Amino acid sequence: MSARVTLGILAFLMFAVTQMIRSSLYIAIEGILENKTDSVTNFLQSNGSEKQIILWSDHERGIVLGAFYASYWITELPGGLLAQRYGGKIVLFIGVFISGLASLILPLGCFHSPFTAAAIRIIQGLALGVTWPAMHCLAGKWISKSDRGKFMTTYHGAALGNTLTLPLGGILVTHLGWPYAMVIPGLLCIIWCIFWCRFVYDTPEKHPRISEKEKLHLDNTLEDSSQLKNDKLTPPWCSVLSSAPFWAVVFASFGLMWGTITLSMQLPAYMADIYAVDIQTNGFLLSLPELGKFVFSLIYSGLMDRAMKKKKLSITAIRKISVTVCTLLPGLALLGLCWVGENNLYIGLGLIILCVTSGGASSSGSLANIVDLSPKYAGTLLGMVKTICVLPGVLSPALVSYIVPRNKQVHLHDEWNIVFFIAAAIYFVSCIIYIWLGSGEEQKWTSKNIELTETVGAERRTFLTKSIKDDKI
Q1: 8 Å CB contact between 100 and 124
Q2: Which of 82, 183, 265, 463 is the least buried, fewest Cβ under 10 Å from its Cβ?
Q3: H-type helices in 113-228, by residue range?
Q4: pTM, whole model, 2 decimals?
Q5: Residue 452: what pLDDT?
Q6: Where exactly are the transmembrane stretches of this chain (predicted)?
């Protein structure tokens, strides 16, 4: 097995298990709020003789759900910088390991108080904030442009994580208790860390088992490999912040993040409120869109990579088409969902599947576009993008908890329509801005810093040589 395939498999599994950590609370919290109180006792005491009660208000529920993303943004930019300087391998290991440990104690935090649970989720957010930038840093050093879209499908391991978490979480909550929906993902993270340390390295040059054939292939296909090896340079911040293609990625990512966060956090509650679906059935039904997203991302990225290799479409065209698919289609599906009646479960589920599945095109869209703009600074740029785009993770759950009163026996269809109208509008705006400003070409400022350093170095060597000659004379 090649080193790149190994990296891809472990990257895919990493995104899967970390997404399980993120989303396990969303299904477990339905069990908590339904007062499945004996699950806490069964988890903590084998005799199950004592009954413990957990009662959270709408406000407290919003705080716990939003706590992860309230801290997630803090480590995204530092995570990219740390990965650029010290390597993505160690940064990813530390982040995933800490989040796994935190997941193991999260049930105790929920049992103690919603604010203790929120504190643990804040720790998880800090730990996992480094994962995407660090992986982008590794991708810039291991994956060529023609394989980039295909590799970015590993990021949709998160979809598999949801596919497993939602149905299995529903079963665990129903039969064993909601704490197990949090503990199992934590254990999987710890196991993943062992394989990551054993089989992954920061660069092809550091890999002791890479074949000469694969190493030669990477030397010939990676753009400006000499630049990628220079990890000490600081990104040209002014050029980055004044780059229209960079801001196009920011807006596209913001729209995608708002929609993704709103759907992943709120769909279990929406299905329970509108269609009166129980937790176990809810988890199974909501795993279907995530499975569709994963399968679609594999098929779509393969088609786009083939079009790129055969030069049927430019990189910019591929990126813009992909962003259009993963923003316009979900927006239209959400608008359709607003018009579906409460008795049309299967039509509603079909629109939800369309909405989530079309998001799989992001692997060939803004996600890959970041590496296009600057392979060398990919980790840092992704950290910047995701730092800016953390706002949906904080604002969306707070907004939904304000619009939709979960603990009141009222008609909620109109309230959920407001939530979906907002998400659809953000999708449409982000799509328009990206089509207007987006580009798939490497930016001039990527090599500008390198050239300046090389020029200064050459001048310094010339000066030293001349000084030595003068001394000899």
Answers
A1: no
A2: 463
A3: 114-128, 131-142, 148-152, 157-175, 180-199, 212-221, 225-228
A4: 0.69
A5: 44
A6: 63-83, 90-109, 115-134, 155-174, 180-201, 237-259, 279-300, 321-340, 346-371, 383-404, 416-437
